Amino acid sequence: MLEADDAPGGKLRSSRIDGYTFDWGPNGFLANVPDTLALVRSLGLDEALLGATDEARARYLYWDGALRALPTTPGAFLRSELVSPPGKLRALAEFLIPHARKREESVHDFVARHFGFEVARLFAGPFVQGISAGDARQLSLDAMFPRFRALEASHGSLLRGLRAARTAARAAGGAPGEPRLTSFRDGGVQRLTDALASALGARIRTGARVVELRSRGRSGSTGTVEVRTVDGETFESDTVILALPAFAAADLLREEAPEAAAALDGIRYVDVHVLGFGFDRVDVPHPLDGFGYLVPRGQRVRSLGALWSSVVFPDQAPDGKVGLRVLAGGALDPGFTELEDDVAIAAIRRDLEATMGITAAPDMVHVTRWRRGIPQFALGHVERVRSAREGVQKALPGVRLAGNYLDGVGVNDAVRTASAAARALLAPAETAARVL
User: Fold this and answer.
1) Domain-ending residue, one of 339, 356, 375
2) pLDDT per residue over 90-108, tens digit each?
């Protein structure tokens, strides 16, 4: 494994600061993907798994000067202050309106077509911001949420499709609710990458950024691939997995697989800030009875939302303390990541005062600035990924792509693409894949 950074793990990193645990990037994974759970078991981390608390089930929107609970049932939706009476009627009419749309569309347009523009403005934008820091008007429904497209195709109405899925889950003996966010005790998400690094041991070369990838003739149906690191060291392998951001993979593939490189060049990334704060519990007026909140644009709040980390995972803050994680920047506020740390912290503290009434100074602050941090699944993304995969396989049969820019931005998606790439390469013969 050739790792460009000084430590493996990418954005799956966590810090322990004065008793707080702060996740730099993803803060967990949904415990509903076999590949991730199998990986956890293989690393002996079963006993360290930590599911989100029941108290974290509630979500909020900051809207019109207050945090308002997101409705999770039809009754709660009808009682909600977030949507006007005409907006509620339009949303409930989703059952009655024919929905036959085959072409690709944005997340916003899909939600607006099914539930009306008011619901799309209120919910689609913040929902997408919380996942990818992106713009719901630009991101592809088909790439980000293919399940919704499948439910529409099979049931016409999305509400009917979701109801049928819940009924089928109950009939199969499964839980009809959402899968639970899951992390690890005593260290956060980095325990996963630490365990992987420990399992690989000396097979990891850190500080070994790959600067060139070349095909070196044929070996059976694949071919030998030579990679060269920034220090001039070279390796040859029948199989290579490029577990890199799209832009880095494109640079390596430009000579040998130009069609794939061109497709990968079309995948844009956005800059994001992740800020961690620690407070005394008595200094936080809000009851903290949920997961956190998201902020639709236009509310005079700059941050995209906040996660109440110590509610979701209580071991992430000392007793009597509160840990918060705030996301800012992204597609709709690209200038935020240009701010100096003290200016960014001051801006977020103003947001926390407006949304949660916090005026006290924090006793812990941690700032992580991710340049080109999150890939954006813009319209045309499915076709770009198909072209990239086909271009690589055509030019370099022994090479596969893996990463969160392909089929989803979460931990589960990254694990799933890596598992699929390894299985595809190992299927013809028992050869060892070298992961870049």
Assistant:
1) 375
2) 999 998 887 766 689 999 9
